[in-house]
Specification:
Number of strands: 0
Distance between the termini: 33 Å
Shape: globular
Structural class: mainly alpha
Number of domains: 1
C-alpha cells in the first residue's frame, strides 16, 4: 500500500485545492457580473505617469520591508548585514506569488538560516512577528479609511465594521506588546482544551511570545508598529496610482485606500497563487461600498493587482536565474 502523506502535507494540499476552487469561483463571479468589455476599454486608456510613481513607491516599500525584517532578525545590527538580505527577501515574495504551498516562506527560512547560520526557529519567529505587525497595520489602515470615507452602506453596518476593526487592532497590539499575556493564553488553552490541536496551538503561541521578546521591548515594538503602518500606506499608493491612471481623482483618494485595505485583508481567504480571486473580489466589493461603479472598480483592482504581483514575480525569476538555479526547489536543496 502506498505511503500516506503526513498530516501537514495533507493540510497544505487541502488548502491549495481549496484556494484553487475559491479563487476560481471569485473570478467567475466577477466575469459573469461585470461588463468585462467595459473593463478592458478602461484599462486600454490607462495613463503611465501615475503608474510609474506608484511603482517607485512600491520599490521603496519593499526596500524598507527588507530593512524591517533584518531588524527583527538582528535587533543589534551586528550579525546580519543589510545589503545581502534585500534580493532574497524580495524574491521570497515572488516565489510565493508564482508557486503554491507558500514555498517563498520556505525559501526565506532556508536562505537566512544557511546564509547567516541563524536557527530555523529564530527566522520563523521573526516572520511570525512580521506577519502580526502587518496584520495590525493593515487593520489600522482599514479603520482609518473607514472612519473618514463616505460609504453607501447603512450606518449600522459601518459602525459594526469599525467596532470589529477596533477590537482586532487592540487584540493584535496586545499580542505584540505583552508576550507574558500570550504565554498565559497558551497555558489556558492547554488546561481548558485537552486536544492535540490545542497543544500545537499553545506551542505556536509560546513561539510567538519568544519571537516578540527577541524583537525588543515595548518601545521598540511600538516603533515597529508605526513603521509598518507607514509601509502599508506607502504600498496603498499602488492602488491610488491605478485609480488616478484610470481617471479617478486624487481628492477621492480615500476610496482606493478603503479598497486597498479590504482587498489586502481578503487575501487571508484561500485563493489562487498570487492571491488571485480573493484580492479582486473583496476589492471590488469595497469599491462598490464607497459608491464606485462595478467596471471602474474592477479595472482599478485588476491594474493594481498586476502592479503588486508582476514586479516581485519577475524579480524572483530573474534573481533565481542569476543564481544559476532554474527553480526554487533546486535552490532549497543547494548546499
Amino acid at each position: 500500500m502506498a505511503a500516506q502523506p503526513p498530516p501537514a502535507a495533507q493540510g497544505g494540499r487541502l488548502r491549495f485545492w481549496l484556494g484553487v476552487v475559491v479563487g476560481a469561483a471569485f473570478l467567475a463571479v466577477l466575469w459573469f457580473t461585470v461588463d468585462m468589455a467595459a473593463v478592458g476599454a478602461l484599462l486600454v486608456r490607462a495613463t503611465w505617469p501615475p503608474l510609474a510613481l506608484a511603482l517607485l513607491a512600491y520599490a521603496l516599500d519593499f526596500l524598507l520591508r527588507a530593512w524591517r525584517f533584518r531588524l527583527l532578525l538582528d535587533p543589534g545590527g551586528r550579525d546580519v548585514p543589510f545589503a545581502p538580505t534585500v534580493a532574497p527577501f524580495v524574491a521570497s515574495f515572488g516565489i510565493s506569488d508564482i508557486l503554491p504551498f507558500r514555498l517563498g516562506d520556505v525559501f526565506r527560512v532556508y536562505w537566512f538560516h544557511r546564509r547567516f547560520a541563524l536557527p530555523v526557529g529564530h527566522v520563523l519567529g521573526a516572520m511570525v512577528v512580521e506577519r502580526v505587525l502587518d496584520l495590525v497595520s493593515i487593520l489600522m489602515v482599514a479603520g482609518v479609511a473607514l472612519m473618514l470615507v463616505d460609504s453607501t452602506l447603512p450606518a449600522e453596518i459601518v459602525a459594526q465594521f469599525r467596532l470589529v476593526l477596533a477590537v482586532a487592532v487592540i487584540a493584535s497590539l496586545a499580542v505584540l506588546l505583552s508576550p507574558a499575556l500570550i504565554e498565559g493564553l497558551a497555558g489556558l488553552i492547554e488546561r481548558k482544551l485537552p486536544f492535540a490541536a490545542a497543544a500545537k496551538l499553545a506551542e505556536t503561541a509560546r513561539a510567538v511570545a519568544r519571537a516578540v521578546r527577541g524583537s525588543g521591548g515595548p518601545k521598540r515594538i511600538a516603533g515597529m508598529v508605526l513603521l509598518s503602518f507607514a509601509l502599508w500606506l506607502l504600498e496603498s499608493l499602488v492602488m491610488l496610482g491605478a485609480w488616478v491612471s484610470l481617471g479617478g481623482s486624487v481628492t477621492e483618494g480615500l476610496r482606493p485606500l478603503v479598497a486597498f485595505a479590504f482587498s489586502t485583508l481578503g487575501t487571508l481567504v484561500p485563493a489562487l497563487p498570487g492571491h488571485f480571486g480573493s484580492y479582486e473580489f473583496f476589492g471590488m466589493l469595497s469599491y462598490r461600498a464607497v459608491g464606485v461603479g462595478a467596471e471602474q472598480a474592477t479595472a482599478t483592482i485588476l491594474l493594481a493587482h498586476l502592479m503588486l504581483w508582476l514586479p516581485t514575480a519577475l524579480f524572483a525569476l530573474g534573481w533565481l536565474a542569476a543564481a544559476r538555479t532554474g527553480s526554487p526547489l533546486r535552490l532549497l536543496r543547494a548546499g
